[in-house]
Amino acid sequence: MPSHRSEIRTPSPRARALLVLAALLSAALVGGCRRGDRSSARPDVLLITIDTLRADHTSAYGYARPTTPRLEEVARDGVRFTTAYAPMATTLPSHSSLMTGLLPRALGLLKNGVAFDHPAPTLAETLTASGYRTAAFVSSFVLDRSFGLARGFATYDDHFEKNACKSYGDTWEGFQLSAGFCRRGAATREHAERWLEENGYLGGTAAQPFFLWIHLFDPHDPYEPFPAEAAMFPPLGDPPTELQKQIAAYDGEIRYADDQVGRLLDRLRAAGRLDDTLVIIASDHGEGLMDHGWMHHGMMIYDEAVRVPFLVRWPARLPRGRVVQEAVQLADVVPTLHDLLALPPPDRALDGVSLRGALDGSGALDPQRPIFLQRRQYDREVDLGMPVRGEKFGVRMGPLKYLDAKLEQTRELYDLPTDPAELDNVFRTQKRDAKPLIDAMHGWLARPVEAPPPGKVSEDAAKRLEALGYVQ
Ligand SMILES: [Zn+2]
Fold first, then answer.
1. Of 44, 98, 150, which Cα lies nearest the Cα of 284?
2. Do the Cβ atoms of 9 and 174 come closer than 8 Å?
3. Which ranges of 233-368 does DSSP label H, i.e. alpha helix?
4. Residue 118 domain flag
5. Cα atoms in the 13 Å half-sphere on the side-chain side of 415
6. Has residue 435 been placed in a domain?
7. Residue 429: helix, strand or coil by DSSP?
8. What's the gap in Å between 92 CA and the centre of ligand 1?
9. 10 Å Cβ neighbour count for 327?
10. Phi-psi region for residue 213, left (φ > 0), alpha (ψ -120 to 50) or beta?
11. CA of 51 relative to ligand 1 center, distance in Å
């Protein structure tokens, strides 16, 4: 039936146009869905935390020395929060807050060396339930799986070889350390890259989105930069003081960590995945560097100890080069991801809020939202060159910050725009200005805490620690 065949082979111009349109639409839908799975509804999520990184020592936040050229790039390509806070200057509680959207006080987790075991779902659990392949690569024993944050991760890489890191002492938080305490950023990054390769994310065909958390520990003391970074940051001062030498070494460690971040992003870019990846970079706390008489972290909640970098990069959906001034906190990460990724709503009220409007410009944050801070729990009075007694709480609201340590009998109020170093306590002269902050703090402290105080690590975990060479 030539006429019939001819009809099929040669459709009318109108039918041909319709066929072409249908083919185009179908291709667009298939392509759209494939892209949509990754670039809008379910992008890859890369979370990088750089331990002990105070915001004002990164060139991404205006530091005069070029400590973080790669974070500068991320800020140019994404959104930079100028006023981001860790809830306390202690690694495990701070990371736990980031991973749950709850403050350490709500988690009942106020120090290192105990186990996170709150029933709130972790980000890894939530993303696993939403179809993500999850993996974490951490760089310090402080985040060993025994302390609870491995929950929800299909892969949790916490291998610390002896002498693979820096010169730590023999004990930490009551643990006898005969195994390694940490590892260098390059080792952590290389493990993570191998996981990406093995799972088809670097040039492969993986369809399942990933949630990858990388924790870098290099800026944590002792500061022992490699020669390349040490040479880039000679100590200031002529002759330099011991403190200036230490600060230069700290800056060198920051540059090294920044380089690891850059190398990892380069791998994702080369694989064509970077711009469809939601990248979040933050730190768990800062570092004292003697600004208030204390070199390291833990006991202080002045800005040098708790103000951290916080960058979000996702060119597929978020503007480039946006800067957000309102104060935010690590606990905002979980609700923000629920919102951005259209995940089911959290199963409980969270301390954090979604930053989506601030990220994409569709809404503004409340500039008076209180951001609560507290220092780590010391089980007894300690003398760390200065006496530390009892609890200390803080709240940032708008331009003001109020700090209260009952047993130390100190109440402090700082006007941060005019006194960013927190050196001029104006509490006595501006008590009235402190009132809304004190009220907010009392409201926060009056909230019931559902979490039982976390105990020691479980028996299983203790056995694992012992097998690894850590004995408490
Ligand atoms: Zn830390």
1. 98
2. no
3. 242-270, 303-306, 333-340, 356-360
4. yes
5. 8
6. no
7. coil
8. 7
9. 25
10. beta
11. 5
Give residue for tokens 């730590």. Answer: 168
Domain total of the chain = 1
pTM of the model: 0.90
The gap from C-alpha 409 to its chain's centroid, in whole angstroms, comes to 33
Structure tokens given for 79: 């959104």
- Asked if residue 445 belongs to a domain, the reply is no
Query: For residue 349, what is the domain's CATH number?
Result: 3.40.720.10
Both tokens of 278, joined, read: 């939601």
Tokens of 115: 């186990």
In angstroms, what CA-CA distances link 110 with 141, 151, 332, 335? 17, 19, 19, 22
Tokens for 312, please give them. 């979000």
Please check whether residue 299 lies inside any domain of the structure. Answer: yes
pLDDT at position 452, please?
59
Query: Residue 166 and residue 155: Cα distance in Å, rounded?
Result: 25
What local confidence, expressed as pLDDT, does residue 453 receive? Answer: 60
Series of mean pLDDT values for 10-residue runs along the chain (472 residues): 37 46 38 41 95 98 98 98 98 98 95 91 98 97 94 95 80 83 96 97 91 98 96 97 98 98 98 95 97 92 98 97 98 98 95 98 96 88 76 97 94 97 98 98 90 68 77 74
Helix axes 242-270, 185-198, angle to 10 degrees: 10
- Residue that has been written with the tokens 């009318």 in this structure: 12
C-alpha of residue 319 to centroid of ligand 1, in Å: 30
CA of 275 to the centre of ligand 1 (A): 29
**Residue 159 exposed, middle or buried by CB count within 10 Å (0-12, 13-18, 19+):** middle
pLDDT number for residue 451? 63
DSSP count for the chain of H helices, then E strands: 14, 20
Q: Residue 245: what pLDDT?
A: 98
Spacing, Cα 228 to ligand 1 middle (Å): 24
CA of 26 to the centre of ligand 1 (A): 50
Domain assignment of residue 217, given as a range = 38-367
Which helix (H) or strand (E) element contains residue 394? strand 393-397
Q: Which amino acid is at 325?
A: Q
Within 10 angstroms of residue 240's Cβ, the number of other Cβ atoms is 14
Q: How far is the CA of 52 from the centre of ligand 1 (A)?
A: 5
> How far is residue 243 CA from its own chain's centroid?
27
Using the mean position of ligand 1's atoms as its centre, give its distance from the Cα of residue 84 in Å: 16
Q: Is-contact 467 124, C-beta < 8 A?
A: no
- Whether the CB-CB separation of 58 and 282 falls below 8 Å is answered with no
